[in-house]
Amino acid sequence: MSSVALLITLLAIVTALAALAERVRIASPIVLVLAGIAISLIPGLPSVVLRPDIVILVFLPPLIYSAAWNTSWADFKANFRPIMLLALGLVLFSTVGVAWVVHTFVPGFSWPLAFVMGATVSTTDPIAGTSIIKQMGLPRRVVIILEAESLVNDATGLIVYRYAVAAVTTGQFVLIEAGEQFFVVVLGGILIGLALAWVVKSIHQLTDDTPVVETTLTFLTPFAGYLIAEEWHVSGVLAVLSAGLFLTLRSSEFLSRQAHLQTINVWNVVTFLLNSIVFVLMGLQLRRILLTTSGYSPSKLLLYGALVSLAVILSRFIWVFLASYLPRLVVNRTAKSGLLFNRKLNTVIGWTGMRGVLSLATALALPLTLRNGSPFPQRDLIIFFTYCVIFSTLVLQGLALPYLIRWLNITPDQRAKQEEINLRIQLASMAIEHLEANYSLSEEVSDEALALLKHKYETRIDRLRLHQNGRRANANASEVRETMRIQLEIIRVERELATRLRREGQKDDEVLRTILYELDLEESRLLLETMR
Fold first, then answer.
1. Where's the Cation/H+ exchanger transmembrane domain (predicted)?
2. Domain range for residue 502?
C-alpha cells in the first residue's frame, strides 16, 4: 500500500472510530488504540511502522503548541508549585522507582539500562490524559494541573532519557556535569521559545490583517521553535511550550478577530486528526513488538510487563500523596505547599498517569548498537515493557477512571461555568452603562436606535440569568425562552430557503454562500449566549 493510500485509509478509520467513541461514550484515545491493536492482529495485513523521528518531529511540536495555546498563563502561574512537583519531581521519582524495580526483579538490566527503562515511561501523555480527563467533569484546578503537568514533564522526561541513553552507549555519567547540562538545556529551550515568539508576534503585526497568512504562521511556529532549539542542543519541547504560552497571552495584540476565529477552527481539525492518527498508529505497533520478543517466554514477558506497569502506577500514587502532605508535616506549611488537600482528588490525580505515544516513540528511538558496535542491550524488552505500561495506564486505567470518580462521589465542578455566566452578565451590564452614559443625551444616535441596542443587551442578560444558579432569575423566563426558540427557528427557515435557492441556481452562488456563513455565525452566537 502506498503512503498516500495508507494516509487516506487512516483518516477514514479515525473518523469512523471517533464517531463510534462519541456514541459509546468512551474516550476516543482508548477506542483508537484498541482498534489499532485489533487491526494489527488481523492475519495477512501489512505491518505499519511507527517511525520515532516522525512522531517527535511531525506530531509532537504542533500538539504541544496547541495545548500550550489553550493553556491559561494565569492558571499556570497560580498552580506553578503543584505543576512542578509533578512535572519535575514525579518524573525523577518515577524514573528512580521504576529503575529500582527493573534492576532488582528483571534479569539482565544493569543500573544504566534500568534508568533508560525508567526514563522512557516517566512522562504522562499530553494528548491522552487531556482527552480523557476533560470528559469527566473534574474540578477545574485538577484539570489545569494535569494538563500543565503533561506539557512540562515531556521536556523533563526527554532530557533524563537523553542522559540515561548516553550513559549506556558511552559507559560514562557524571552527575554534576549532567546537572549543569540539564540547566542549560532547560533555560536554553525557554529562551529560544520566547525569542521566537517575539519574532512571530512582530511578523504577525506586519501581515496587515490577512487571516490566511496569520493562520499559516501559527502552523510554522511550533516546527520552527522545535528545530531551532534542537539544532542548538537545548529542549525543543520547552521552546515550543514557552512560545505557545507567550503567544496565547499576547494573541489579542497581534491576531485579527477573523484570524483568531479561523485559527481556532483550523487548529481544532488539525489537532483532532493528529491525535487520532497517532493513537491508531500506536495500536498498530503491537504485532511488530510481539515479533521482536518471540524468543522470550510469554509468561515471563507478561509477568515482567505487569511488574513494570505496577511500578509506574504505584510510584505516581506514592509521590502524589508524599508531595501533598509531607510539606505540611515537615515545615508546617499550608496546604498550598503540596498538590491538593483533598484525598479524593489526590486519588484521581494519582490514577490519571496515562502514558502514550511519546513513551513509545522514545523506546523505539533507542539506538540499535552501542559505540563499540555491539547491540543495544535489552532494547526489545524495553520496547515491550513500554507498550505494557501504555496499555495498562491508558486503556485499563482510562476505562476505570469514570467508575473511580463515581465511586469517590466527585461531582462536576460548576464554578467555572458560573464564573463565565457572571462575567458575561457583567460585560453586558457595562455595555448598557456605556450606552446610557455616552449616548442617552446624544443627538448622533436616535432614541429608537439606542433603545434597540439596550434591548439587545438586556435580552442577553435575561438569557444568561436563566442559567445562573440553575434556576429562573426573573418573571420573564418563559418569554425569553420562547424568544430564543423562535429566533433559532427563523434562522433555520432562512437557511433552508437560502440552501434551496443555491441548489436551484436562482441566485448568485457567492452571495448565497456569504449569507449562509452569516447565518451559521448568528446561530452559533445565539447558542453561545444561551449557554445551551
1. 13-406
2. 486-532
